[in-house]
Amino acid sequence: MLTVDASGLKIGIVSPWLRGRYSTDLFEREFNTVVGQDLATILPDTFDIKRLLAGGQTTCRLPGSDRVLEASSSRITDSDDRTLGHTLIFRDITDSRQNARRAEVLSRVLRHNIRNRADVATAHLRQLTDSPTPDTADKIATTVEEELSALRDLGGTAREIESVLQADKRTGNRSVEELIRHAIEEVQHAEVVNDGHECAGGVSSVPVVIDTPPAETRANGEILIPVIRELVSNAVEHGGSAPEPHVSVRVKETSDTEGVDQWWIDVADSGAGISNHEVEVFEDAEEQPLQHGKGLGLWLVWWGVDRLGGEVSFDIDRGTTVTVELPGSLLSYE
Question: Which PROSITE patterns does the UniProt entry name for this protein (predicted)?
Answer without folding.
Answer: HIS_KIN
